[in-house]
Amino acid sequence: MNNLFKALNDPTRRQILDLLRGGDLNAGEIAERFDMTKPSISHHLDLLRQAGLVEATKQGQFINYSLNTTVLDELLAWLMSFQKTETSTTEKTQQPR
C-alpha cells in the first residue's frame, strides 16, 4: 500500500489518473498534455503501474494505459473501515448507562 500512497501523493500522477478516467491513452497522448519530457512522463506512468493504479498493454509500437479501479476500490474499502470503527466507538460512548 506504500506504493499506492506514494503514487497518489504527486499532482502530476493524479492528473494522469484523471485523464485516464476518460478512456485509455497511449504514453504519447498522455505526454502531449504535460509540459515535461517524455522520460519524466514515463517515470510517472511506471510508478502508477507499480502501484497497480494503471495497466499497461503493448499494441504494436505503442503502450496503452488504462485505469485499474480495483486498487482504488480496495483503498476506499480500507478507508471506510475506519469510518465504521469511528461510528461504532462514538455510538458506544454516547449510549446512556
Automatic annotation (TrEMBL):
Keywords: DNA-binding, Transcription, Transcription regulation. The keyword Transport does not apply. PROSITE patterns: HTH_ARSR_2. It holds the Pfam family HTH_5. GO terms for molecular function: DNA binding; DNA-binding transcription factor activity. InterPro entries: ArsR-like_HTH, HTH_ArsR_DNA-bd_dom, HTH_MetalResp_TranReg, SdpR-like_repress, WH-like_DNA-bd_sf, WH_DNA-bd_sf. Residues 1-87 form the HTH arsR-type domain. The keyword rRNA-binding does not apply. This is Autorepressor SdpR family transcription factor. It comes from Spirosoma arboris. The lineage of its organism: Bacteria, Pseudomonadati, Bacteroidota, Cytophagia, Cytophagales.
